[in-house]
Task: structure prediction
Amino acid sequence: MSRMKPASTFLARLPRTIEPYLYLTPAAAFIGLVFIYPIIWILQSSLWQNNPDGTKGFGFTNYRLIFEDPVFYQVVANNGKLLFAVPIMTLLALFLAIVLFERVRGWMIYRGIVFMPYILAVPVVGTTFVYLLGLNGILNTLLRGLGLNGLAHDWIGSADWVIPSIAAVIIYREMGFGVVLFLARLMSLDKEILEAAEIDGANWWQKHAYITLPQMSAVIEFFVIVELITMLSWVFAYVYTMTGGGPGFASTVMEFYIWKHAFAYRSPGIASALAVVLLGVTTVLIVLQLRLRSKSLEETL
Result:
């Protein structure tokens, strides 16, 4: 009876140029099944249209319908408004990271407190802020109790305040990620340069503006791009748990609008077309992040 040859003998007989691809095949198959196939299916689904004779064919009807829909532009504007939260979040995270880097008393405890919201599930955070920001929520109750009735608003029920309120909640949760990210980069800086600047008479602002921040440019760029992508394609859970897209379409974002067309309006073709548009925008941001990263690496080398 002949014995089965071990796998190592089989691999040894293969050309060296082929062997690495065999090890990559399982991962490539998984990526193709989980990522590439859904993208191809979405692209195909976005092009399906109903012909006048009742048959189905390929065309750009779904794209024409979404670009003729006024709600689509309101949804895009809502996502655009959320983008303004990114610079605010970045500046707050930088300031807190620098303060913690200065080793204020209890800085490790403060670091944990700042990062804690980031590890909480988004529905938990969203539901909590519904009780805080509702018309008769905790915040308005406190304001009325202090005699500040003019400052009490329906924060998540008003078309004027709902997007800023959601943006504030996103900043509250996502800022901890930026603080820890920036603090890790600060701890890797050469302390001798900072000490030399202090000896030369640089004040707190000059030291960090001219020495610290330029060395953190790559990390800041990474955080900004990641949060821009978050504001475009990762805020569904906030909207779903806090407002349900209302009032009207005042807080509807692209993700929620895609979900509405796919499951509430039963329009998978339009939902797919919206998903392709969103995919295109996020792809541009990802490519931009990669280009910035490669540029920073070339400057470093």
Q: What stands out?
A: Strands lie at 48-50, 56-58. The CA atoms of residues 190 and 273 lie 49 Å apart. The chain is about 75% helix and 0% strand. The chain has a mean pLDDT of 87.
